[in-house]
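User: quick one, fold this
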Amino acid sequence: MNPFLYHWQLSLSRPLHTDEQIIPPGFTNPGFDMHSAVHLGIVREGDFFMNVLSEKVPHPQPLELEIFLTSSWQLHGGTFSRSGTKLLLFTFLPEAVLNCVIGEDRECVRRLLYAPADRECSRFLTPEIRTAAQELAAQHETLKTAYCPDVAERKIWLKLVDFLSDTARSLRGGGPETGGKFQKIIPVFAMLGSRRHVPLSPALAAECCCLSESYFHHVFKECMGISFSLYELYFRLNGAAADLAAGAGIKQIASDWGFCDTSHFSGAFKRCFGVPPSRYRA
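Assistant:
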């Protein structure tokens, strides 16, 4: 399974997956992924770091996070923990959240879930939101033990929607308006996933979104925080890493993922993951 195609078996009728992770000291995961679902992570104990992916190579200084929120199709990863951590991870469909919110709050929530431009989480890490997130985690624990799984899941979902609505309301007017523009570039993610064109050129990407190439570049970088060319490269390297883990040969992987030869592939892979493909597989 390719990391960037994780679905967690989510649907509009079952839009939420929760995962309580116990991460050991010294844990590191240089990988990353991208998907339509959104993550809300709450650190309950210990420390948790995440690299902010950007145009910079190598990755910039990692951020220590108490809570984090990824956006739909946002690149995220490069995580590690020094002392170990207990992490509660909510993974959910953003469109399902929007179906539960009405009025002005709906627009605020849409902006929150489709605006990855605030990549350093600075607006999100306020004392009030930190407190509310820990309360949500405590409610999750209480509901999980007090009710049968199906009932607990529905009640946890409502608590999550309330948290996102309250958070979006508290941040109203403070963030970039990218949600509407994000809708314009959604077709490119389906095209990337189809692998009909590997690599996918900016011209074809713009054409599938019915946008001029220059406007596509502008909207994509505004919405996703990095250029389309770099995002597309990360997408291919992510898929290559999954194939390496599955045991495929390096030469075949380089060809399958649109690299001109193994040297080109190995160099790009090492710049991204910090190790050559042969060591990553080992």
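User: anything notable?
Assistant: The chain has two domains: 3-170, 179-281.
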